[in-house]
Every structure is written in C-alpha cells, then in structure tokens.
Amino acid sequence: MTDAAPAVGARFLEFAARHRPAVEAELERLIPSAEVEPRALHAAMRHAMFPGGKRLRPVLALLAAEATGGDPRAALRPAAALELVHTYSLVHDDLPCMDDDALRRGRPTCHVAFGEANALLAGDALLTLAFEAVAEGGASAVKALAAAAGSLGMVGGQVGDLEAEGLGGDLTLERLEWIHDRKTGALIVASLEVGVFAGGGDPAALDAIRSYGRTIGRAFQVADDILDVTGTAEALGKMPGQDAAHGKSTYPSLLGLDGAMAAADRLAAEAAVLAESACRSGPDGAGLESRVGLLQDLAYHVVARKT
Amino acid sequence: MTDAAPAVGARFLEFAARHRPAVEAELERLIPSAEVEPRALHAAMRHAMFPGGKRLRPVLALLAAEATGGDPRAALRPAAALELVHTYSLVHDDLPCMDDDALRRGRPTCHVAFGEANALLAGDALLTLAFEAVAEGGASAVKALAAAAGSLGMVGGQVGDLEAEGLGGDLTLERLEWIHDRKTGALIVASLEVGVFAGGGDPAALDAIRSYGRTIGRAFQVADDILDVTGTAEALGKMPGQDAAHGKSTYPSLLGLDGAMAAADRLAAEAAVLAESACRSGPDGAGLESRVGLLQDLAYHVVARKT
Predict the structure, then answer these.
(1) Range 182-221 of A in CB contact (< 8 A) with B
(2) Which residues of chain B have a CB within 8 Å of the CB of A182?
(3) pLDDT for A237
(4) What is the model's pLDDT at position B4?
(5) With an 8 Å Cβ cutoff, are A155 and B121 in contact?
(6) Does domain A10-304 sit in CATH 1.10.600.10?
(7) Cis peptide preceding A38, ω within 30 of 0
(8) Which of A149, A181, B257, B285 is most buried, judged by most C-beta within 10 A?
(9) Which of A270, A304, A275, A305 is nearest to A66 (CA)?
C-alpha cells in the first residue's frame, strides 16, 4: 500500500529517532521516583510508562512545532503530556470493568501487577500530571488537550466503542468513523495543536494543521485495522486477528481489505497535500521544503508501518 | 466547640449563599446535556454532579479572589473546576475496587446507576473537564490544581488512606496528618490559590493564603472526624459512627473527643490570625476589614458546622 509514496517516511523516522531520547528523559523527570511516597503509586505509574513504545504522540507535538516554524525544544514538557494521557487511557482501558486485559507489550498490566485500586489511581495521577506538564505550554495548550481527551473526545469515543461492542459490532462506516475520530484521532490532532502552541509555531497554521491531523489520525486507524489482518505476531508484539475474533467492525470488515488499503493510500495522499498548506501558512524561508517533507513523510509512514 | 468564636461564620455563610447560584449555573453550562452523545456518559457525569452539596471548594475560590482584592466573577469558571475535581474523586472512590459504596447523598452511586465502565469514564471525563475549565484562569491556576490533585496531593493521600486501612487503622498522629493534608487539605489550598490566580488577586498574598488554607484544611478534617462521633444522621445525611465501626484512626480516636475539639478550636484561632496577614499582604482600603472578616468567619464556620 506504499506504492504511491515517494519514500516510506525516512525524514519522519530520522526526526523521531533524534528526538525520542529527550522525550524519554522528560518522562523520567516528570514521574516521581518509586522511592517517593506513596511508593506503590509511583511504582504503578512507572510500570505503566516504562519501558515505553514509540512515543508517537510526543514526537508528533515536536514535529508540529518544527513544521510551523517554532522550537521543538520549547515544546518538550507539553509534548510529554501527550504520552501521559495516552498511557493513563491504556491503564484504565485494561481494568477488569473495561477490556480486562492481563498483558500489555508482553508484561502484566498495571492492575495485575499492583492491584485494581492502585491501577485506577495511577491512571488518575498520570492524567493529572499531564495537565501539570502541558501547562508549561500555556493555557491554549491546556484547553486543546482537555477538549481532545474529554467527553467530546477520547473518553467519548471510548464510551461509543463500548456501546458498539454491546451491539455485536454491526456498525455503519459513519459510526465507525465517529468512534475512531474521537477515541484515537482527537489526541493525534491535539498532539499537533499542543506542539504549535507550546513551541511558538505560527498560529496561522493551526487550521491547516488540524485538517492534516484529522486526516493522518484516520489513516492511522485504517492502517491499524489492516495490520490486524495482515500483520505478524512478531512485528505487532501481539496476536493479529483479534478484531475478527471479537466480531468487531473495522475498516477491512466494512470496505474489504483492498478497499481499506485504497482508503489508507487516499488518506495519506490527502494528508500530503494538507501538509503543504499547513507549512505554507507559516513562515517562508530555506527550511520550508524540509518542513513540508517532514509532515508528508509522517503521512506515508503512518500507512506504511508494519507495527 | 464554638464558644471561642465571636460569631459562627455569618459573613462567610452570607457570601456562600450569595455566590452559590452562579456556581451551580456555571456547572450546568460546563457539563454537556444528557442529549449530547455519548448520552450515557453525559448522564453519568450529571448524575454525579446534580443535585449537589454545598459547593464548598468553588465558594472558597471565589472567597480567596475577593479577600485578596480580585474579582470573584472573573474566577467563576476556574472555581467550578474545583467541584469537578472533587466530584470525580467521589465517583472513583465509590467504585467496587475502592470503597464499594452503593449510596451517596441518599441516591445510588454513579456505578450502581450507570455501570462500572461508565462510572470510571465519567470520573475521567469530569477530571479532564476540570482542566479545561481552570485553564480560563491561566497556566498558574492549572499548575496549582494539578499539583494538588495528583500523586503528591489528593491521589497520593487516597493511596495512603487505602494503605492505612490495610494496616488495621493503627496510625500515628503524624501519619494521619500526612494522609489528610493530601487527601482533603491539598484541594482546599488549591481552591484558594486558583481563586487568587483567576480572580486577579494580589499575588503577594499567596504565601499567607496557602498557610491559611493548610490550617483550615486541617481544621475541616478534625471537625469532620468529630461530627462522625457527635453528629446526627438527620443533619449529616449519613449514619454517624462509621469511622469507629470501620476501626479507622481519627483525630478523636488519637486525641480523645475533648482533645480533638480543643485542636479544632486552636486551628480556627490560628487561621483567624493568618487571615489577617493574608489580607494585609493585599491592597489596603475600605474593604480590608470586611475581607479579613470573611476569611475569619470561614475558619469559625469550618469547626462550628453541623453538616
């Protein structure tokens, strides 16, 4: 599904590899040591956070700062807030009253390792800490994150997803998009917004950045659903075929595998066009082409990734 | 225990009664209607929030704005955020993996009425909405609220309290204060801080306001423990004697009932002195005496209240 792409995201991958250590170090600084009281709480927060995954959302925030002419270094702490929100949502999703998952990334989930009450409270504390961190980027960054994570965003999408499971997974494409735009997409858009606000990027780029974010957010989810059909356990770090096994509606189940792949390519191409207008709203200059290329490579990477 | 007080908080009670309708209206505006999707989520959030109690924390925020020469009206939305945080903490505390309570204020708790998953997510959404609301008061207000509500504040105190229950309730006075200063006190101090930041009060008053807040926070908890011994079911809206029945360490169990009453009076008197220095750090003028009186009456009310 990457035939249409001139490259498979090399500039994005290089950017992500270059900035990931700083994100990791910032998360280390933000979460109190497990020697600080209450120790069980801080140990549970750290269990959920380390070792981490790709830290995609913080990298997106730093990338948005760079692409709109701002300074990624100024956005580091607010960028880390995105990972705190993402991780809290995983801890709460794994709880027995939700998905009741015992394993995540091959390790016991937080409530299995620390008990349900500590996992619930560790999630609450991670979410709260996220807002302390994003406040370094100013009140606009706080509002963008809160709106994306709340009842009209991520949490709302989560409730919609639970209700869909109750319906036996027989969804319309419209409803599937409603759920994913909130459950996954809203936080991806907020990552970019926070990066622009906190990094001092050009606010004139915000509308175009949001459209770009909605498009890659949807591409991300379509690619996720495709990977659950075509991926290998080794690459994914989990068993593929889970969606079908649980009778969930997905883009491949509604559009067919070929239809879903075509949709992913179309979304990546759309995002590449939006990348251009997002960067052109910002400052001109020698860096313009490389900034456009960065956002475009992210779009191609999102649909080409194998994990 | 109110013999030492010149009045039992009349100026505070008048202030609270005057501002409570605006707080209520602001909470109504903040939480989406139960007609907005996902309806079950918004209905669960509203079930937890309405009808409410005394809305003490928002009133404290407005009072701190007034006492430090700011404008309570400018602090209204950030003040409402304090009630959102308080309410989320009650929803999560009532969950089966925590206190497993079926009733609150005589009504089914959120998870009894809407199921565990919806209650968990309603709590998450209320906490998230709190940060959207407090952001109207600027980044300093956000940081104050997040620090008070997180792992080194309210959530940390909650974990300490759960651990204390596991120890059979045999606590030292020092540990009891450690728990309560975080579980209850931190959010009371943050209410005052948010009011000063959001209402445009004099920042020079912040240190004194914090000392005052820590003192009334502790007085509040001592009075709560006393009411559980001396209160009536009718006035409290719940059965008294719960602490003793659960073998919990309390101020009366550690200091005796007379000792606890003396401690409450001493804390109220200390707070009255701190009220004076908090207001004198702010602007002078005709209103100074009434501003001091407002904070002092709150201190007397906290230990004199019957509910």
Answers:
(1) none
(2) none
(3) 73
(4) 47
(5) yes
(6) yes
(7) yes
(8) A149
(9) A275
Does the pLDDT at position B234 exceed 60? yes
Q: Map out the domains of chain A as residue ranges.
A: 10-304
Within 13 Å and on the Cβ side, how many CA atoms surround B203?
Answer: 4
Residue B38 with chain A: CB contacts under 8 Å: 151, 156, 159-160, 163
Partner B contacted by A112 (CB < 8 A):
no
Tokens of A25: 């170090």
Interface contact B121-A32, CB threshold 8 A: no
| B232: pLDDT strictly greater than 60 | yes
CA B79 – CA B199 distance, rounded (Å): 9
Q: Which of A231-240, A271-280, B91-100, B179-188 has the lowest mean pLDDT?
A: A231-240
Q: Smallest Cβ distance to A92: which of B120, B129, B147? A: B120
CA A175, A177, A179, A182 dihedral sign is: negative
Q: Is B148 on the interface with A (CB under 8 A)?
A: no
CB A114 within 8 A of CB A43: yes
Helix axes A154-166, A139-149, angle to 10 degrees: 0
In this complex, the residue of A37, A127, A143 whose CB is nearest that of residue B124 is: A127
Chain-chain contact of A129 with B150 (C-beta, under 8 angstroms): yes
Q: Please give the DSSP secondary-structure letter assigned to residue B240.
A: S
User: What confidence score (pLDDT) does residue A289 get?
Assistant: 87
Low-confidence ranges of chain A (pLDDT < 50): 1-6
- Among A163-172, A207-216, B9-18, B265-274, which stretch is predicted with the lowest mean pLDDT? A163-172
In three-state form (DSSP H/G/I as H, E/B as E, the rest C), the secondary structure along chain A is: CCCCCCCCCHHHHHHHHHHHHHHHHHHHHHCCCCCCCCHHHHHHHHHHHCCCCCCHHHHHHHHHHHHCCCCHHHHHHHHHHHHHHHHHHHHHHCCCCCCCCCEECCEECHHHHHCHHHHHHHHHHHHHHHHHHHHHHCHHHHHHHHHHHCCCCHHHHHHHHHHHHHCCCCCCHHHHHHHHHHHHHHHHHHHHHHHHHHHCCCHHHHHHHHHHHHHHHHHHHHHHHHHHHHCCHHHHCCCCCHHHHCCCCCHHHHHHHHHHHHHHHHHHHHHHHHHHHHHHCCCCCCCHHHHHHHHHHHHHHHHHCCC
> Hey, what are A267's tokens?
């979304």
Under 8 Å between Cβ of B249 and B176:
yes
Q: Distance from B237 to chain A by nearest Cα, in Å?
A: 27
Give the pTM: 0.95
Q: Which of B97, B138, B152 sits opposite A116 (nearest CB)?
A: B97
Contact A295, A287 (CB under 8 A): no
For residue B187, list chain A residues with Cβ-Cβ distance below 8 A: none
Query: Residues 264 to 303 of A: which have CB under 8 A from any B CB?
Result: none
Copy the structure tokens of residue A192.
């970019």
Contacts of B114 in chain A (CB under 8 A): none
Indicate the residue of B38, B117, B152 with minimum beta-carbon distance to A97.
Answer: B117
